[in-house]
Each structure stands twice: as C-alpha cells, then as structure tokens.
Amino acid sequence: MALPDIQTKARFVVExxxxxxxxxxxxxxxxxxxLAQWFCDDVRYxxxxxxxxxxxxxxxYAEISGQRLNRAVRFVFLDEHRQPVADANYLEFTLESxxxxxxxxxxxxDYSPVQDADDQQEMWDGLVYKLREQVGG
Length: 137
Fold this sequence. Notes:
This protein is of the alpha+beta class.
C-alpha cells in the first residue's frame, strides 16, 4: 500500500499597489474570463461555483469558497476527482484601499506546497505585472 504524498504547505502572502479601482480590478480576480487574461493559460466555469484553471494543458479544479464583491475572493483547489480535500491548497485575492492615499493594494495569499520563496516571489511579480498591463495600472 502506497502512502499518500504528504507535502509541507505554507502561506505565502505578498501585496502589490495597483493603480486601478476595485470595481475595475475585481472582475480580473474573480471571473474566468478575467483570470484567463493574466493568471493562467485558460480558466473555464465548470459548474456552480467551480472553475477549471488550465496551466500547460493540465486541469486544476477549484471552488470559489468565499467572495465579497469588489473586495475578496478565495479559490480552494479540489482533488483530481473534483472533490474537496482536507488541508486543500487555496488562493485568495484581497483588495485593500487606503482612504488616506486613495491607493489600492492587491494582497495575494497562496497556500500551497512549500516552494523556494524567491521563485514564488518572482512568479507573483510576473503575474501581477501582466495584471497591471491588463488594467492599465
């Protein structure tokens, strides 16, 4: 009997200033069409609150487990049978606005198997750069 592949997971949190209003930015974070423009090769709605994120022709199914309009969205990844799992990987995008400076910040929380922190930072820097190109910010 093979033991399950147990990987140590960690939360990676990073914030980026984005020069766009939450109302303009949020659809890029919470909809399949918006995410497909910057986050991965393609994103498709599957059913209900479930999406299929496609990277390098591989399917990664996730469920929207929480959403606050123009504020936050969380995607919890499912197993290969599209079923919830204990201690699942998740990705959360949160928009914070500074009332003093009028700046908008995107906080990314990536809970997944431990990776090299520099590589993960570089990956998110690149993704957010693509996002900024899309929203003009």
